[in-house]
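quick q for whoever's on today - can somebody do inverse folding on this one?? i tried earlier but teh output was garbage lol. tokens:
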């Protein structure tokens, strides 16, 4: 099943550690380009998350936003360094003994002293585990979204392939008639130019012109490339790059067909083929 490169997914998780939200969005890109924005406390998860993205996604520009809003249990706690306070108090008493009228010691002044207040950092192990779980769920949701979008593209591509097949069959059925018409026109023109024409030389010229104008090979290759597109669409794994290449091959055959045009009907068919191929190419740009 083909996958689209365009999708969006979001997951939220709330608990004692706070609120975690993860957003992943992906858009078209020729290769896999990853951009991750993580909270400072979760930076060390980035290599593992990148590896997980690379294993799940084939290509596309992917942006990941992981946000954390701290809860009460994860907020830092302030503790008093009692040994530091006791040492400062003793030092203050020694200073007071040397002073005639010392001012009373202010507790707030002690709290401002460096090293008196100790901030205990929250334990981030459970938070990292929760972040990894939320990210995995979001990535799975994104992947399902890409599959759903790819499933919507598949009928559009198959419809264009069916229409290409119709044009090819029409031209193939009309080729003998068109070649005969061209031969008659060529004979008539030559008869108007010269009074006598060597039959053998005329036959040789007609064969050469017919060979140059014959588009049987182009029609066969259009059929072959169309079938290869169908096989690729039904295949596993990322197929976008191969489809890009096949669109180029289909367009090349349509251009050659146009350059060998025998009549207005062939020209119209070649134009229609180019339109159909271009419509497919636009859709293929969004296939992983």
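ok took a stab at it. sequence:
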């Amino acid at each position: 099943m083909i996958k689209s490169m365009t999708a969006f997914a979001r997951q939220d998780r709330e608990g004692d550690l706070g609120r975690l939200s993860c957003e992943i969005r992906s858009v078209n890109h020729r290769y896999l380009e990853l951009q991750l924005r993580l909270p400072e406390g979760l930076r060390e998860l980035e290599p593992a998350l990148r590896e997980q993205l690379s294993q799940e996604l084939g290509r596309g520009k992917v942006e990941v936003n992981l946000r954390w809003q701290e809860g009460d249990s994860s907020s830092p706690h302030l503790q008093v360094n009692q040994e530091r306070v006791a040492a400062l108090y003793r030092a203050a008493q020694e200073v007071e003994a040397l002073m005639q009228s010392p001012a009373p010691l202010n507790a707030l002044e002690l709290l401002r002293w460096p090293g008196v207040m100790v901030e205990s950092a929250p334990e981030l192990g459970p938070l990292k585990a929760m972040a990894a779980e939320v990210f995995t769920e979001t990535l799975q949701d994104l992947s399902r979204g890409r599959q759903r979008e790819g499933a919507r593209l598949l009928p559009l591509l198959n419809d264009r392939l069916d229409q290409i097949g119709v044009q090819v069959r029409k031209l193939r059925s009309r080729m003998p008639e068109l070649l005969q018409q061209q031969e008659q026109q060529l004979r008539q023109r030559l008869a108007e130019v010269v009074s006598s024409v060597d039959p053998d030389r005329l036959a040789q010229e007609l064969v050469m012109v017919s060979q140059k104008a014959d588009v049987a090979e182009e029609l066969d290759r259009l059929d072959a490339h169309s079938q290869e597109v169908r096989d690729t669409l039904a295949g596993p794994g990322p197929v976008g790059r191969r489809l890009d290449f096949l669109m180029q091959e289909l367009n090349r055959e349509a251009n050659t067909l146009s350059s060998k045009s025998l009549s207005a009907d062939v020209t119209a068919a070649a134009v229609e083929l180019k339109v159909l191929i271009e419509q497919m190419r636009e859709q293929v740009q969004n296939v992983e």
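fwiw The chain has a mean pLDDT of 84. also The chain has three domains: 7-73+124-146, 77-120, 150-284. so keep that in mind when u check it
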